[in-house]
Q: What sequence folds into this?
């Protein structure tokens, strides 16, 4: 019995599902994701935008025409609002194009290898896919596209191409528009991260559609907002096909507000592009063939099968993209740029697998885009911890230790210290909390030390007080590089938050020693819960002030008469 016979109520060509393929086999637990082609960090302006979006009503549809978003996009792109069609990500724009251009059996032409969704959208619209094989060097068969264009209702292009990074020349796009009786759709999802802007060709060719997204260079993948640039008649037809309100009220407003930060976006994209190129150079230095480096990714051929490469890196908690749907790319992996520390970890893992020296780690200071961040993976017989801390954050936390009050205190430390903190701990809580609490302090201190780097041009010294009802805590810190603590937490009971009272000063001492922080902290009151919480808040406020940039840094930037810390 055929597949179509088991699904008699659907179109035969859709009876055998072939959905878009996400990376398979991702391990459970904390991993570094290099497979998503999205940016690793939220933009610095995101907390401000998110706060505005959070004030929107939850029970309202978006304004039907998206007039405010179109106007903001017109200011940035130079295209009039009548030529702009918002969509739920660029993917919805691509699907709308397929629906608009293709009837049953109509030809859609693309050159392999490229983004898989073009094939999915073609099949969903009832079209017939004509996929041209690449040249031996995996470059796109653009001459073949020109030959097939007169018989096509849609020509799919991606520039820069995913996953090879190849750009389609302007002259080729113009020639395809002249030859094709249907639509020529150019997906420029990665444009902000480098590439030739082809949107001005829309004014010359009424059958050209340029698709864009906020998911890549803008760092708003979670919002799912994209848009098309097209001639007014085509834009109107696409807009008529789009489901009403497909871009949510919150997503549309987030995108509109983001457009006020175009300068920061461009700076961030330049930093990510530089980090992408560093990754490419590192992989080349290991003797690997880099097939493409564009947008947010590097595509590289390995000496292993795709499955072997994925498994070896997944064992190191590093997830890369393979292409099981594309036989041409057997043995090839795509690596999305991450933070410099994560990128260094991947390069070092590749070096170990190849038996070669690892490329030099990234030099500090880092670009402001990446801020000051530190990551630690700590593995013992008693605990497994993954920690990432960002000093220039907004207090965003994801803390899961298995100990509720410990989560609460570390969350308070991050929130009041304006640290971005991710901490996952899996400890032997069946024994007791000691090892988990202690190792959380050690790992967080190590991450803090790495985030501080050379500790140049910071205030270094700071003090703060924090009350909590009847309790009062006072804290003084020195980030000069000496890991010493003097702690006086006046606790009256045997346990606080279900944890032995002795573990709270032990946690803070472990953090101070591992983080090379001179920590003086005292807290007293009638309620032990208040005493501990006030202590963490005072420490957070002092740490927040000490890591700030010094408005009058010393010569050389090192805040020490010794000239080093």
A:
């Amino acid at each position: 019995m055929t597949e179509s016979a088991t699904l008699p109520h659907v179109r035969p060509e859709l009876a055998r599902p072939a959905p878009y393929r996400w990376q398979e086999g991702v391990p459970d637990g904390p991993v570094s994701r290099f497979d998503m082609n999205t940016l690793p960090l939220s933009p610095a302006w995101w907390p401000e935008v998110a706060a505005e979006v959070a004030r929107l009503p939850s029970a309202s549809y978006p304004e039907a025409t998206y007039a405010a978003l179109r106007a903001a996009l017109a200011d940035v792109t130079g295209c009039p609002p009548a030529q702009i069609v918002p969509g739920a990500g660029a993917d919805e724009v691509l699907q709308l194009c397929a629906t608009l251009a293709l009837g049953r059996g109509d030809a859609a032409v693309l050159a392999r290898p490229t983004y898989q969704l073009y094939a999915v959208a073609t099949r969903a619209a009832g079209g017939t896919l004509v996929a041209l094989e690449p040249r031996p060097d995996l470059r796109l068969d653009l001459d073949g596209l020109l030959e097939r264009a007169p018989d096509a209702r849609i020509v799919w292009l991606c520039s820069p191409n995913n996953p090879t990074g190849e750009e389609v020349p302007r002259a080729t796009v113009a020639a395809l528009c002249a030859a094709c009786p249907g639509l020529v759709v150019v997906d420029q999802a990665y444009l902000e991260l480098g590439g030739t802007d082809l949107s001005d060709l829309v004014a010359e060719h009424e059958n050209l559609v340029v698709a864009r997204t906020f998911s890549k260079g803008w760092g708003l993948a979670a919002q799912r907002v994209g848009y098309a640039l097209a001639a007014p008649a085509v834009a109107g037809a696409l807009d008529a096909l789009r489901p009403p309100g497909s871009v949510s009220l919150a997503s549309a407003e987030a995108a509109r507000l983001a457009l006020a930060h175009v300068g920061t976006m461009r700076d961030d994209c330049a930093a990510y592009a530089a980090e992408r190129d560093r990754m490419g150079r590192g992989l080349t230095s290991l003797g690997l063939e880099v097939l493409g480096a564009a947008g947010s990714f590097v595509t590289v051929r390995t000496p292993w099968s795709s499955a072997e490469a994925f498994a070896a890196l997944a064992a190191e908690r590093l997830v890369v993209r393979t292409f099981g749907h594309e036989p041409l790319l057997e043995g090839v992996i795509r690596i999305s740029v991450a933070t410099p520390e994560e990128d260094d970890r991947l390069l070092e893992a590749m070096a170990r697998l190849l038996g070669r020296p690892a490329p030099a780690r990234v030099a500090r200071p880092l670009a402001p885009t990446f801020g000051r961040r530190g990551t630690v993976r700590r593995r013992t017989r008693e605990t497994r911890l993954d920690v990432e801390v960002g000093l220039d954050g907004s207090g965003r936390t994801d803390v899961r230790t298995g100990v509720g009050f410990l989560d609460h205190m570390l969350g308070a430390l991050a929130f009041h210290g304006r640290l971005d903190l991710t901490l996952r701990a899996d400890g032997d809580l069946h024994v007791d909390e000691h090892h988990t609490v202690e190792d959380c302090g050690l790992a967080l201190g190590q991450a803090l030390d790495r985030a501080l780097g050379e500790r140049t041009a910071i205030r270094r010294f700071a003090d703060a007080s924090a009350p909590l009802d009847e309790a009062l805590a006072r804290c003084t810190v020195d980030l000069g590089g000496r890991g010493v603590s003097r702690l006086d937490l006046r606790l009256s009971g045997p346990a606080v938050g279900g944890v032995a009272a002795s573990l709270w000063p032990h946690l803070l001492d472990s953090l101070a020693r591992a983080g090379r922080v001179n920590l003086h902290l005292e807290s007293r009151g009638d309620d032990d819960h208040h005493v501990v919480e006030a202590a963490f808040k005072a420490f957070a406020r002092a740490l927040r002030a000490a890591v700030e940039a010094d408005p009058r840094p010393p010569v050389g930037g090192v805040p020490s008469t010794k000239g080093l810390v």
User: Anything to note?
Assistant: The domain at 373-546 is CATH 3.30.230.40 (Ribosomal Protein S5; domain 2).
